[in-house]
Amino acid sequence: MKLVYCDIKVVQDLHNEGVKRKAEPDYELLPKDHDLIRTVLPREGTVLKNEMIRLSPSMPAISTTDLLWNWTEDPTMQSIIFKATLDTKNVTKLCDWVLCNSFYELDPWFCDLIPIKSLPVGPLLSSVLPGGTIGSLWQEDSTCISWLDHQPARSVIYVAFGSLATFSQRQFDELAAGLQLAATPFIWVIRPDFMKGSTRNQDEFRDGVAHCGKRVSWAPQQKVLGHPSVACFLSHCGWNSIMDGLSVGVPFLCWPQFADQFFNKHLICDVRRVGLDLERDENGIVTRDEIKSKVKKLLDGDTTIILN
């Protein structure tokens, strides 16, 4: 959730301090006149150099290809997202404080670089709210919790791609086959609008995995991730999902789809080393063999992963 420009103006007109809440990574707020950013980005945001950059001596290097607007090769879309990022920064100039759904220990270098008063107040979890629930676009299927109760400890893969990502039929089939080949219990969240076009194989998939997996249209994610039967989180790396997983110490299998999710994957896999990246082939597909391989690597105790 964000407070848009008019909200901040109303607050200012009432002579109160302006406060903005952010649900995205802190790096969106970095100064766009930073010397390194100027050397790789023109005004419209198109990357001039594909390289690793380091915005301060204390922070890890990041790739220019992981910047928020570079997930798409469409120049028009890049320009739109870049402008929206600048608008976010401009709104923060009207604020006295920016509240971020993050915590200082996760990315202190970004918190220190932001040229405004930022306050990491995360992770913001529904478990600390009265009743422990939050609003959702879909009805949560709580039967997955009772299903988890019957699974061995640290045995289940939780698969969820947030509220916006969609899959082609081919990619859906590869993921379904990969989960079956991994021969590991799983919960897969498949929204009603998750598939592009035909959903012809979903019923066949559900019948084929009934013995080892559970499919739900939406899940109480924080409760699922906090369950002792869950071993890892196969995620699109949306920021809220990152917060949910990190808060309970669950390792990630990272499959970013768009926007800031590629940078979030870098933070999880390369900086904090609490996850593995699922790599696409030359056709942009994550294959069943890649899924099987990375699941096995993570669950067998990959020594490059830091586990709690």
Automatic annotation (TrEMBL):
Pfam families in UniProt: UDPGT
Protein name per Swiss-Prot or TrEMBL: UDP-glycosyltransferase 83A1-like
Gene Ontology terms for molecular function: quercetin 3-O-glucosyltransferase activity; quercetin 7-O-glucosyltransferase activity
InterPro entries in the cross-refs: UDP_glucos_trans
Claim: Transferase is one of the keywords in the record: yes
An annotated GO cellular component: cytoplasm
Gene name, Swiss-Prot/TrEMBL: LOC104609024
Transmembrane segments: none
Organism expressing this protein natively: Nelumbo nucifera (Sacred lotus)
Alphabetized CDD domains for the sequence: GT1_Gtf-like (cd03784)
Gene3D superfamilies from the UniProt entry: Glycogen Phosphorylase B
Record's keyword annotation contains Transferase: yes
Assigned keywords, A-Z: Transferase
Domain of life: Eukaryota
